[in-house]
Write a structure and sequence with these properties.
This protein is mainly α. It has helices at 4-12, 18-36, 55-62, 74-87, 92-101, 103-110, 119-130, 152-165, 167-174, and strands at residues 45-48, 51-53, 115-117. The protein has a 3-stranded antiparallel sheet. β1 and β2 (51-53) form a beta hairpin.
């Protein structure tokens, strides 16, 4: 498991916006939980008015302290990069809106501001909703796919996804 400040330092190479860093850290944690069953880092999120916030990270960002990023593990980089790629086009308002529409923040916030959002709530809700066809989500890095866990239905969906992502390359190979 990574140190949250190392992940923040990694994300900070791509954006200096404090709100954006918080949301990207949250989604990196979410998708790590969904894809690996394990947290990416030791972040602890609470339901705040503008979405999930790790209060300790907030204080560090507020103090404008900058840490040089330590080398993250390869899987952590792949997960964080997938999140950065997917959420790159989201405005800050869209990131806030997105977290407000999702179950973990909603259920925690109903209990009051600063209520913890548990890793189990995140893993459970996002795993359930990631399996819906209409769910727009980051692409899981292929190196994280454990072939032994794939059902034939998931295998076919994964093959179709790889084909769709590599359509141009496949078309080029036909003519070689």
């Amino acid at each position: 498991m990574e140190n949250k400040y190392d992940v923040v330092a990694y994300i900070s190479q791509y954006t200096q916006n404090k709100l954006r860093i918080q949301k990207l850290l949250y989604y990196a944690q979410v998708w790590s939980l969904v894809w690996t069953g394990k947290p990416l880092c030791n972040a602890s999120f609470e339901a705040w008015d503008n979405g999930p916030v790790d209060p300790e990270v907030r204080l560090t960002l507020k103090a404008r302290s900058k840490n040089a990023p330590k080398q993250l593990h390869n899987d952590s980089v792949l997960i964080t990069d997938a999140v950065l790629d997917f959420y790159d086009d989201f405005s800050n308002e869209e990131l806030i809106s997105s977290t407000h529409e999702e179950g973990p923040w909603k259920s925690a916030y109903r209990n009051g501001r600063n209520t913890p959002i548990t890793n189990e709530d995140m893993r459970s809700w996002y795993t359930k909703n990631a399996n819906r066809n209409d769910c727009d989500k980051p692409n899981m890095p292929l190196s994280l796919v454990k072939l032994s866990t794939l059902t034939s239905e998931k295998s076919i969906a994964l093959i179709d996804e790889i084909r769709a992502e590599n359509r141009n390359l496949l078309d080029e190979l036909k003519y070689c």
